[in-house]
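To illustrate the input format used throughout this study, we show a single complete record. The first block contains the structure-token representation of the backbone; no residue identities are included at this stage. The design step must infer an amino acid for every position from geometry alone.
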């Protein structure tokens, strides 16, 4: 005869795992509908890098963590229902949680990598063609306008040979020095 306390322990563990799974799923659904709930607290930081490449999914994003919690609770409940002990069911929960968290992370990374960006960095301008919008006087500084990636960028510029370049002249960007573009007449 099986003592009734074993059933109660199993039932209690089952409902605990199931409650964890439901909590994780509700949180996952909320973050899917409303966006990442706690991702405004960005703990990552790089010094000396421009904005490009930042903002990708994190392994600690709310979607990944809630995917882990959902799978942990679900696999733990399955383990209890199959008659395994709390320890083995917890191990099953951790294993399933890590697998599902990895799948959620890979899926969100794939979606993020498919996004287009209109961010144009100054270093990307080298080799591009631009139009002089404010004449460049001899030994002086003018302004050029360049369209890149659907964005119009206006930067100060000077000529490579120190000569003047009239407004509305097409130029090629030879070099980028700080925020100043070094240009020559386009052939």
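Output of the design step:
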């Amino acid at each position: 005869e099986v003592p009734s306390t074993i059933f109660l322990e199993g039932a209690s563990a089952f409902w605990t795992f199931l409650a964890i799974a439901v909590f994780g799923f509700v949180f996952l659904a909320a973050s899917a509908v409303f966006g990442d709930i706690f991702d405004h607290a960005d703990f990552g930081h790089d010094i000396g890098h421009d904005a490009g490449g930042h903002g990708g999914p994190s392994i600690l994003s709310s979607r990944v963590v809630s995917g882990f919690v959902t799978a942990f609770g679900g696999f733990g409940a399955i383990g209890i229902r199959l008659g395994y002990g709390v320890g083995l069911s917890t191990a099953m929960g951790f294993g399933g949680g890590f697998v599902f968290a990895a799948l959620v992370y890979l899926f969100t990374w794939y979606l993020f990598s498919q996004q287009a960006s209109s961010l144009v960095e100054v270093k990307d301008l080298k080799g591009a063609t631009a139009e002089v919008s404010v004449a460049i006087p001899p030994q002086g500084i003018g302004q050029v306008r360049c369209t890149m990636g659907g964005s119009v960028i206006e930067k100060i510029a000077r000529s490579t040979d120190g000569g003047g370049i009239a407004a509305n002249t097409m130029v090629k960007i030879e070099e980028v020095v700080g925020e100043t573009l070094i240009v020559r007449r386009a052939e």
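Structural context for interpreting the output: Residues 4-113 form one domain. The chain has two domains: 4-113, 122-185.
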